[in-house]
Amino acid sequence: MVANNNSLRIPTGTLNQVINEAIAVVQPPTDKGKRLKILYITQASTKPPTFVIFVNNKELFHFSYQRYLVNNLRNNFSFEGTPIRIIVREKGEKEE
User: Fold this and answer.
1) What are the tens digits of pLDDT across the range 8-44?
2) What's phi and psi for 10, nearest 5 deg?
3) How much is the pLDDT for 58?
4) Residue 70 in contact with residue 48, Cβ under 8 Å?
5) Pick from 51, 54, 95, 38: which is nearest to 77 by CA?
6) Cα separation of 5 and 26, whole Å?
7) Cis ω for the linkage preceding 83 (within 30 of 0)
8) How far is Cα 41 from Cα 43, in angstroms, rounded to an integer?
């Protein structure tokens, strides 16, 4: 079961729908009047599941909100027993 969870691939449209529902329940954090905007999420790889989240300003992306989104993904897609990696990128940022 854990091996299947580790190699699970989720379509981008489904991921974005789940993340948008999570954002509607708990709004992203703000700092000095600036609000974090999550533009979209996509799955970069499996084993372990790795997701790339594109945001307007990655300095506003607090680790507690990242943990909330990971837990939300875990609950919706049954990633029990496998780590989930999150990569945060700003729009237009190239991969290193």
Assistant:
1) 788 889 999 999 999 999 888 888 888 888 899 998 8
2) -115, 130
3) 85
4) no
5) 51
6) 26
7) no
8) 7
